[in-house]
Amino acid sequence: MTKKETRTYFPRRGILAAVIVSVAIIDQLTKIIALKTLDGRPAVQVLGDLFELRLVFNPGAAFSFGTNATWVFTTLQLVYILAVMCCSHWLRSPISATAAGLIAGGALGNLIDRLFREPGFYVGHVVDFLSVKGFAVFNIADSAITVGVIILVIWMVFSKEPDLFADQIAAEKKSAQKNQKQLAEGGQQ
Question: Signal peptide position in this chain (predicted)?
Fold first, then answer.
């Protein structure tokens, strides 16, 4: 790894890790506050009837989709987080690292609930407490995932960054050409 690669490589991983940890901590802290202040109480109106704080335990995904498949969502979140960590070397910019970090941090925040909240390990219900009129009840982790996906899509559409696999393809092509040249030289002797 060259000096330039070292300089740009580690900050992206650092950004990714910092965002993941920050989102997960903020998510869990806000859930603790919601549990302490909203449990057993009616919804708290914040902006008239437009926005309210309402405690809900969600066994499924967004819009309570898949309420009988909690273990599936737990597995998907775990796989996604591991994939992001394993593939973090493909991140090309601070923006892509931030977006991936928001998504993985949100997944981690909800994964913690699924692993350690009632009704039990790996099938726990996610704590949701933010409610916009006419929309689902959600949490900070859900918001981070949504914002991360939006940033990632915008970045992928408008970025001038090279293709994620361009370096790998170029290296494989160069290696194949070198092998062909060696074979050709070996055959002429």
Answer: none
Query: Quick one: 114 exposed, middle or buried, by C-beta within 10 A (0-12, 13-18, 19+)?
Result: buried
The pLDDT tens digits for 65-105 are 767 778 888 899 999 999 988 888 888 889 999 999 999 99
Closest CA to 99 of 155, 140, 142: 155
Q: Name the active-site residue from 27, 113, 142, 163.
A: 142
Specify the pLDDT at position 102.
Answer: 98
128 noted as active-site residue? yes
Percent of the chain clearing pLDDT 90 (strictly above): 53
Q: Is 142 a residue of the active site?
A: yes
CA 123, 149, 139, 48 dihedral sign is negative
CA dist 3 and 168 (Å) reads 19
Active-site option among 49, 113, 128, 167: 128
The one-letter code for the residue type at 11 is: P
> In angstroms, what is the C-alpha Rg of the chain?
22
